Amino acid sequence: MPTFNDILVLLPEFYLVAAACVLLLADAFMKPEQRWSLHWLSIVVLLMAGFLVIAGQPDVTVTAFGDMFIRDQTSEILKVFALLCTVLVFIYARPYLLDRKQFVGEFYTLMIFATIGVMLLVSAGNLVMIYLGLELLTLSSYALVALNRDSPLSSESAIKYFVLGALSSGMLLYGMSMVYGATGTLDLAQLHAAVPQSAMPHLLVFGLIFMLVGIAFKLGAAPFHMWIPDVYQGASTPVTTFIASTSKLAAFGMAWRLLETGLGDLSQHWQPMLAVIAVLSMAIGNLVAIVQTNLKRMLAYSTISHMGYLLMGLVNAGPEGYSAAMFYAISYALMSTVAFGVILALARAGFECEEIADLKGLNQRSPWFAALMALAMFSLAGVPPLFGFYAKYLVLQAAIDAHMLWLALAGAVFAIIGLYYYLHVVKVMYFDKAEEGGADQSAPDMSMRVVLSLNALALLVLGVYWGPLLGWCRHSFGLG
Amino acid sequence: MIDPNLLQLVCFYVFGAVTVAAALAVITLRNSVHAVLALVLTFFSTACIWMLAEAEFLAIALIVVYVGAVMVLFLFVVMMLDIDQEKLREGFVKFLPVGLVVAVVMLVEMLGLIGVRVMHAQTMGANPAGDSNTAWLGKALYTQYLLPFEIAALILTVGVIAAVALTLRQRTGSKRQLASEQVAVNPRDRVRVVKMAAERPAGAAPAQEPQP
Q: Alpha-carbon torsion A19, A20, A21, A25, what sign?
């Protein structure tokens, strides 16, 4: 039976649910001229949840509601960064939403609900919880993508996202039902124990394949990446930022929970499958990104390639690899918030700043934003001494440790190919002549400017001083 | 006498085959009403499989909620999409054969189920666990699966928020009543009593209409 202690373990989540409901009601009763306060209230609510996550973190792993919910250090780190990314999205989104008259309360409530989904997903201790956390996240995401109702592109991408997302959820459920049939349990810890003794190993692998499809879809790894470019381009830029940052942390958490906590003993089966998916993602992502002219679409293909690198860490199937993959997920989330944040800062009413050509000569008009974008691009490309470089180094090392030298070599080659399109953006900003109607320094508010600058500088600082963060990640997987 | 276990197995495969065939029909049939009828059959066959697995509550819930409410609503919407009275009337006759096929298959499935139940009642007797399926489900939902149950409620909340956010439009120029204004109105704002002669004097100009 659930006790009061169970509720204490879930305090951050329960708090966030209650706060989201209060915000929903406040929005309904607020006068339109007071609605600006919703923005700051949401940020305070999320920061408070982050405080509860850190302050209430127990020293040892605890479970609640009969092992449904696991509160360990890995989930703590993922939750902290998921909350941080959502706060960043809120700060970057405000000027954009105000310019386009899209500043509605639902944007904030749906995003908070999606973040609750992320928190439940990364702490799930049961297949049912994984599925429900995922649905909470994705249902909110579908609605967020469709929220910009007047844009046909948005509606189209929302439908694509919804149909493909429902299909992949079906695949995941089908795989879960097969695994349940082979082991007779839904609990991840019991599943881990039951896998070696299962009387039906083939059924287990059959289920594993379908679960991998679901994971690859949520990560956006090739060949299940088709939705990513359309959704990134069609969704309004704040929502794209959310999908590129917070959602990716959740996808990593889900992959780790399913593959290691649940099916760790099947690693000899899922390692080669993941390796193939990783190589395909890096190849398709990096090669197709080269020909893109739309900045958001280019970043979408860049996401696909980055998910390939993240999977490289998982392929290692050991604590070293998992900590490298988590470090990579965090670094990617922070880098993509900078890249999309600059796009949001440069966009103004009637101008989306979506095309790479829009950035022509940005350095002459707004050197500071050009510098921030260049930082993000160099970091995404993996140029030392930035954050992205060390993350890439770690996953390549994890692949070599797993005796998959070919995978690491492929990763290095595709990283060099990827350098081209990231540097192309830098070249356009610094060496092309500015054109009329391109991006200039529209005046985003001060809070956004300061936070965006700090976020970009963090890429530089963490690129040099990565020790504490990596130590935190390694410690959560039981490494010194 | 037929072996009850064999009958159960045969019923399972028949129901499974009907489910798959009906599901295929849903996505291949060109006529949308036929597709919805096939979907009804899919749900019904699934419910029959669940009934075979002794998950009575889920089976009944599927019939009541999906077949009874959701699919009938679907059928209504699909039939109403083409609002042509003449066509609607001939539609009844046109869709009758498919409807009859679906109904007959359902009947056969039901008879099969009853057959399995009757035979098992003779061989197996009552449910050994003692608890009925519904009672077990209720206990599990509120103890072991309490947290997932609550999260499902959260997902429904998100569904409601999303549905309202995506469909609610405040149209300009739409006529609607504002109850608060109607209640707060003062009679003097609406009615003006004009004093005038009861009879029009002969030859005088007609009384002017009172200004609104």
A: positive
Q: How far is CA A73 from the centre of its chain?
A: 18
* Cβ atoms of residues B57 and B65 within 8 Å: no
- Structural element, H or E, at residue B116: helix B85-123
CB-side neighbour CA atoms (13 Å) of A273: 16
Within 10 A of A409 (CB to CB), how many other CB atoms are there?
A: 13
* Three-point CA angle B192, B198, B201, nearest 5°: 120
Give ∠ CA A122-A114-A217 in degrees, rounded to 5: 65
Q: Give the chain B residue nearest A10 (alpha carbons).
A: B147
Q: Quick check: bond before A385 cis, omega within 30? A: yes
Residue A187, SS3 per DSSP: strand
State residue A348 phi and psi, 5-degree precision. -140, 175
C-alpha to C-alpha distance for A80 and A333, rounded to whole angstroms: 12
Placement of tokens 């963060």 in the chain: A469
User: How many angstroms separate the Cα of A280 from the Cα of each of A156, A171, A216?
Assistant: 27, 20, 11
In the block, which residue shows the tokens 């190993």?
A201
pLDDT in tens, chain B (212 residues): 677 778 888 888 999 999 999 999 999 988 788 888 899 899 999 999 988 888 888 899 999 998 888 888 888 887 777 655 555 556 666 777 888 888 888 888 888 888 777 776 544 444 555 667 788 888 888 888 999 999 999 999 999 999 998 888 766 667 778 888 888 888 878 888 888 877 776 665 555 555 55
Residue numbers in B near A129 (CB within 8 A): 147-148, 151
Q: Which of A404, A226, A241 is nearest to A313 (CA)?
A: A404
Backbone phi and psi for residue A293, each to the nearest 5 degrees, phi listed first: -110, -15
Q: DSSP alpha helices (H): ranges in A123-234?
A: 127-146, 152-183, 188-194, 201-219, 227-234
Block residue for tokens 């006790």:
A3
Instruction: Report whether B25 contacts B142 (CB < 8 A).
Output: no
Interface test with A, best of B46, B147, B149 (most A CBs within 10 A): B147
Question: With contact defined as beta carbons under 8 Å apart, do A257 and A320 qualify?
Answer: no
State how beta strands A62-64 and A69-71 pair.
Answer: antiparallel
Distance CA A14, CA A19 (A): 8
On whether any CB of chain B is under 8 Å from the CB of A133, the answer is yes
Using CA atoms, how far apart are residues A84 and A218, in angstroms rounded to an integer? 21
Q: Which of A21, A66, A146 sits opposite B144 (nearest CB)?
A: A66
pTM of the model: 0.88
Q: Can you tell me whether residue A126 is helix, strand or coil?
A: strand
Residue A2: list chain B partners with CB under 8 A.
143, 146-147
Tokens of A207: 């289920």
Token representation of residue A305: 């390639």
- The number of beta carbons lying within 10 Å of the beta carbon of residue A37 is 11
Would you state the structure tokens that stand for residue A190, as one six-digit string?
Answer: 């019991």
Q: Which pair of structure tokens corresponds to residue A91?
A: 């700060």
